[in-house]
Design goal:
Number of strands: 2
Structural class: mainly alpha
Distance between the termini: 52 Å
CATH architecture of the largest domain: Up-down Bundle
CATH topology of the largest domain: Growth Hormone, Chain: A
Radius of gyration: 21 Å
CATH superfamily of the largest domain: MFS general substrate transporter like domains
Strand content: under 5%
Number of domains: 2
Number of helices: 16
Strand order of the largest sheet: 1-2
């Protein structure tokens, strides 16, 4: 007789416990592993600049290389898993990401580091896009919502842990220790995923790469999606720009923080675990436009607060900035399938691609600005991007038929 192990978790705001089985924990582990390895460079910026005698823009390229690789491969990873199978694709990608992350220590120059980071990013979509497809196929609609929440929690924890652990490891053993630690951590989780994640039972191929490409071409003629893609670009552009270059500011006087403490600042990312569910409830009450506007104003206020001279003000500003960006991300991501009209998976693939292109440019564009104008210049650059996002989101979500219909139903109730 097979016994299914379950774990009991009580979520905030819920009166009854939620039972998490091994499959769901494996899914959470996949999300964790995918995002531990994408952004650790942000916490290591000062250390890498010193070691390679490189500029901020050059080290930023090592971050941009990973996100650019994700952007190039994410739209097609799902189609590739149609050929390899969901579970084999996940396991192969997990093991490869862990191994390549460890091999990053072989970098003898900043150019080599950029190359290794590109290779890591190339394989990461094989984890997260395939896992999302697996969730949709292997759980009922209600269970898929719960499992997706566990997966998202894993990605958030992974995003924080990657930066925090990298910072701590660097304090003890240099930047090489950071990449070895992250790689070993991924490899240790591969057997858990292999044992706890069953093979696909409801495998549902999407039709291959050419079908996805034709659907994407159609989506590029959809004005609602085009405006949403502007937002997706801006979301990760601003997020990466702020958290990459604030690390350099925190390493300088009057803060003079080490990499471990800089990594700890990324704990503000954990706010998304609380913010995302709350946003979904408020959209149905007030509509997308006012919630998005509020989010952008919160981000702008937080960005300005980071100009303060105390560590408390900088962390407070980063927290408010993150809250606003997470609000926009929640709204935009949920809007894409509704606005697509057909082949929502291809629309999401485009959204993800443009999202990570924005992140790639967010890692390098502020580099020369930092060199010339310091943190104030970066703040001005990001503020301009936030203003463009504010105008775009308000115009989009006060005019699109989905929001108008939702608000009409609310007035009629």
């Amino acid at each position: 007789m097979t016994v299914r192990r379950t774990f009991v978790v009580t979520l905030a705001g819920e009166s009854s416990p939620m039972f998490i089985d091994k499959r769901q924990l494996a899914v959470g582990a996949c999300g964790f592993c995918a995002f531990t390895n994408l952004y650790p460079v942000q916490a290591l910026m000062p250390e890498l600049m010193s070691h390679f005698n490189a500029t901020a823009a050059e080290v930023g390229l090592s971050l941009a290389a990973g996100t650019l690789a994700v952007a190039l491969t994410a739209p097609f990873a799902g189609a590739l898993s149609d050929n390899l199978g969901r579970k084999p694709m996940i396991l192969f990608s997990l093991a490869t990401v862990g191994l390549v992350t460890m091999l990053t220590i072989l970098s003898g120059s900043i150019e080599a580091l950029i190359g290794w980071r590109f290779l890591v990013g190339f394989f990461i979509p094989g984890i997260f896009t395939t896992t999302v497809a697996y969730i949709g196929e292997e759980w009922s609609q209600k269970e898929a919502v719960e499992t997706s929440a566990i997966y998202i929690a894993g990605t958030v924890l992974g995003g924080f842990a990657g930066r925090f652990i990298a910072g701590l490891a660097t304090d003890f053993g240099g930047w090489q220790a950071a990449f070895v630690t992250l790689g070993v951590m991924d490899l240790l989780l591969v057997p858990l995923v292999w044992r706890w994640l069953p093979a696909s039972q409801n495998f549902n191929p999407t039709g291959g790469v050419m079908v996805s490409l034709r659907a994407m071409a159609g989506h590029m003629r959809n004005p609602l999606l085009l405006q949403t893609f502007v937002l997706s670009f801006g979301i990760l552009f601003t997020l990466v720009a702020v958290f990459t270059y604030v690390s350099l500011r925190l390493a300088l006087p009057p803060f003079s923080l080490g990499t471990g403490l800089i990594g700890g600042v990324f704990a503000v990312y954990l706010l998304s675990v609380v913010i995302t569910p709350l946003v979904g409830r408020q959209i149905s009450r007030f509509g997308r436009a006012p919630i998005a506007l509020a989010g952008m104003l919160i981000s702008l206020a937080g960005l300005m607060i980071t100009l303060g001279s105390s560590l408390f003000l900088v962390v407070l500003g980063l927290a408010l900035f993150s809250i606003g960006i997470f609000i926009m991300q929640s709204i935009a991501t949920g809007f894409v399938p509704q606005a697509a009209g057909f082949s929502p998976s291809a629309a999401v693939g485009l959204y993800v691609m443009i999202y990570y292109i924005g992140g790639s440019l967010g890692a390098v564009v502020p580099g020369p600005v930092w060199q010339e104008f310091g943190w104030l210049g970066c703040v001005v650059l990001v503020a301009v991007a936030l203003l463009i996002m504010t105008v775009t989101s308000y115009r989009l979500w006060t005019r699109d038929p989905h929001t108008q219909r939702m608000m009409a139903e609310r007035r009629g109730s």
